[in-house]
């Protein structure tokens, strides 16, 4: 089915779209009411009217996912990331590996056509039971697909009169096949709809008109039995089946209870028990619907209408616990839940430990009570006690190493995808901050390379540092840098070497923090290429190498509004290259030096795994490359024999449009791929300061500011140098 269930196997998280689990198969099933007035009840929020245009589907192996962003289908693959998926319709199901898709599209005549799509881009319009799709009454919709992609189920118009005359159908390579209706000999024309198919393709479930009875009746279809009624609940007015376990032995759905004034109840069906309403533990509810079931059929999830102003509640049912709210399920597993936030549970994982659904304010949630902790290494078997010789004392039996304490794994909790996604972006902060620090190392205190020249045959030593703020856009941090350098002028060329350290702090979402401490080494060569009178052309070549550590605290909202934290540490390394051509024009009143520069930097942050919190994550290795061009000038104005004013003005262009996507896995849940925000590619920088001669040395101070861009917004650079 198009909801997250035992067939889909995993849940992919995105920031480019909100995968609309609120519009999953059970909700779509409800809109195809076929004239059944009992389906429309207020509290649970079933709807009526045309088929929803929204959709969500995910392959069982997690390699492919589809969702919608407004009227745009979005395709995700684990190799290609996100991209618009050009298809004028809705995808409702994916095969196990995502290579085959099922869905429907609406034609110019306003009627729907079922389609089968493949990874090659081919779109096959599936046949109709009646007509060719051009007529006013021609209609077909595909709701679900088997794991192997060979069987698709849905419904199609079955006759010359629209009048609700649709049949549940199955499409295979042999074509379309009507599954018929229940008791077709006396059927009133209500028809039938197939909503789901078991993962193995053996069982199809849905709802059908049954004889002269009004309303729909849930059915189960297999090749051996044909369409078989699952019955109604105490002769209630309606029943519908939405999902089946992996082998089809357990079926869940919704039925009106004839003993409760046709109030709607969630049901679970097995061959042995028949159709049984699910009981709720200590919950007064007015209506209920079961949307999904775990692979073995032991866990059922759905929605309970409570009649309260706070709205309906998502539930999870097992035979041992009855139906309990998602929040109480988590509390029983040891979680602290601050408030009741869930509305409806749309899907459950194969093992029943993860539930996804919708909150009261329409956001998608993920709830998890247990995960499997890593299996500890086995206790080593001790070496056997050697048989002693008659005289020597035998060696004692070695003491075995203690059994490692297993990682307890993530705790129970609930989080919305929006909150989780926003926090995951923090995984890139350390790498971005390192790029900023590398840029400052080359273009902060080191931005005026001609100021570090020594006289021919002389050497120079300097100490320098920068301190700045990094608050452009949504960044909120500070950084400091200190360096010491040495250079020697060999006549035709001067060589400089610098060592230093930078400290980068960034505040992230909800008070989280990233700290990066990076050591660096810089090498630089200055050479005069051409000289004419008072002007000369200089070539400056430089490089920087960096290595350091980062500590990352990622905060996020979970458990109904509480702030939780997961922490991790990792290594950072990178390099940068710079080439500058600079003309220096010297006069008694002014030294003016226009320049052009091209630089390239690359930084990589090793992958790491967080600990703590309910939703820790594993982040993959992340590398970013940036190439920047600079045009500007340096100016120095003598005020007195020992005091000068300095200024810099430059424009910067970054060639890359955005950084690398952040990828990894929320432990025990799913892989993720978070797209980085687009860079501000152009900005200006202005600097002003002074330098003063002190006892054979020179002290300089310069303040810098930039327009909005991928650099610090303001910093102060200080430098002391001495020639000898």
Key phrases:
724 residues; mainly beta; Neuraminidase; Lipocalin; 2 domains; four-stranded antiparallel beta sheet; 50% strand; elongated; disordered N terminus; Autotransporte_beta; Autotransporter beta-domain protein; Autotransporte_beta_dom_sf
Description:
By secondary structure, the chain is mainly β. The protein folds into two domains: 90-327, TolB, C-terminal domain (Neuraminidase, 6 Propeller); 413-653 and 687-723, Lipocalin. It contains four helices and 44 strands. The strands form nine sheets. It has a twelve-stranded antiparallel beta barrel with strand order 29-30-31-32-33-34-35-38-39-42-43-44. A four-stranded antiparallel β-sheet has the order 1-2-3-4, with no helix packed on it. A four-stranded antiparallel β-sheet has the order 5-6-7-8, with no helix packed on it. A hairpin with a 5-residue loop joins strand 6 and strand 7 (112-118). The radius of gyration is 34 Å and the shape is elongated. The N and C termini lie far apart (78 Å).
């Amino acid at each position: 089915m198009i909801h997250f269930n035992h067939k889909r196997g995993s849940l992919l998280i995105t920031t480019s779209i909100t995968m609309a689990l609120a519009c999953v198969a059970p909700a779509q099933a409800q809109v195809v009411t076929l004239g059944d007035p009992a389906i429309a009840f207020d509290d649970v929020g079933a709807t009526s009217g045309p088929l929803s245009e929204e959709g969500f589907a995910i392959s069982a192996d997690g390699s492919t996912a589809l969702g919608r962003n407004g009227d745009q289908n979005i395709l995700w693959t684990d190799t290609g990331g996100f991209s618009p998926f050009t298809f004028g319709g809705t995808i409702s199901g994916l095969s196990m590996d995502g290579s085959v898709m099922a869905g429907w599209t609406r034609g110019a005549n306003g009627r729907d056509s079922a389609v089968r799509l493949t990874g090659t881009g081919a779109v096959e319009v599936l046949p109709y039971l009646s007509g060719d799709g051009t007529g006013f009454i021609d209609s077909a919709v595909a709701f679900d697909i088997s794991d192997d992609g060979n069987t698709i189920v849905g419904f199609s118009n079955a006759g010359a009169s629209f009048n609700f005359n649709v049949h549940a159908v199955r499409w295979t390579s042999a074509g379309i096949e009507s599954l018929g209706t229940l008791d077709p000999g006396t059927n009133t024309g209500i028809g039938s709809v197939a909503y789901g198919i078991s993962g193995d393709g053996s069982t199809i479930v849905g709802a059908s008109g049954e004889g002269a009875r009004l309303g729909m009746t849930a059915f189960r279809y297999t090749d051996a039995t044909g369409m078989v009624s699952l019955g109604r609940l105490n002769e209630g007015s309606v029943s519908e089946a939405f999902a089946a376990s992996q082998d089809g032995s357990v079926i869940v759905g919704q039925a009106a209870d004839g003993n409760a004034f046709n109030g709607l109840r969630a049901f679970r069906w097995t061959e042995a028990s028949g159709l049984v309403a699910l009981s709720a533990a200590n919950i007064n509810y007015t209506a209920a619907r079961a949307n999904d079931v775990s692979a073995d059929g032991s866990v059922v999830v759905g929605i309970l209408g409570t009649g309260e102003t706070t709205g309906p509640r998502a539930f999870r049912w097992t035979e041992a616990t009855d139906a309990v709210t998602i929040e109480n399920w988590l509390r029983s597993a040891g979680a602290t839940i601050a408030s009741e936030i869930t509305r409806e549970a749309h899907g459950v994982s194969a093992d029943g430990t993860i539930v996804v659904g919708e909150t009261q304010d329409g956001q998608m949630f993920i709830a998890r009570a247990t995960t499997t902790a890593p299996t500890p290494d086995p206790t080593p078997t001790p070496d056997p006690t050697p048989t002693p010789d008659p005289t020597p004392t035998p060696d004692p039996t070695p003491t075995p190493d203690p059994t490692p304490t297993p990682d307890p794994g993530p705790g129970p909790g609930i989080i919305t995808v929006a909150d989780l996604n926003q926090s995951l972006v923090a995984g890139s902060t350390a790498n971005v901050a390192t790029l900023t620090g590398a840029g400052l190392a080359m273009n902060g205190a080191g931005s005026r390379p001609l100021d570090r020249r020594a006289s021919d045959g002389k050497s120079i030593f300097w100490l320098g540092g920068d301190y700045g703020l990094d608050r452009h856009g949504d960044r909120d941090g500070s950084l400091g840098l200190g360096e010491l350098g040495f250079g020697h002028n060999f006549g035709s060329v001067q060589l400089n070497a610098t060592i230093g350290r930078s400290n980068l702090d960034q505040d992230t979402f909800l008070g989280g923090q990233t700290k990066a401490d990076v050591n660096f080494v810089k090498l630089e060569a200055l050479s005069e290429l051409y000289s004419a009178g008072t002007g000369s052309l200089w070539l400056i070549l430089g490089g920087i190498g960096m290595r350091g550590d980062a500590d990352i605290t990622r905060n996020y909202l979970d458990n109904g509004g509480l702030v939780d934290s997961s922490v991790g540490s990792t290594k950072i390394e990178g390099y940068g290259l710079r080439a500058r051509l600079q003309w220096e024009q010297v006069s008694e009143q002014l030294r003016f030096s226009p320049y052009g520069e091209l630089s390239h930097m690359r930084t990589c942050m090793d992958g790491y795994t967080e600990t703590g919190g309910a939703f820790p994550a594993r982040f993959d290795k992340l590398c970013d490359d940036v190439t920047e061009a600079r045009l500007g000038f340096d100016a120095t104005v003598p005020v007195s024999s020992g005091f000068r004013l300095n200024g810099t003005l430059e424009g910067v262009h970054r060639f890359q449009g955005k950084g690398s996507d952040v990828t990894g896995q929320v432990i025990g849940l799913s892989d993720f791929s978070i797209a980085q925000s687009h860079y501000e590619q152009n900005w200006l920088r202005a600097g002003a300061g002074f330098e003063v001669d002190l006892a054979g040395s020179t002290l300089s101070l310069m303040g810098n500011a930039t327009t909005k861009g991928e650099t610090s917004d303001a910093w102060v650079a200080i430098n002391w140098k001495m020639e000898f």
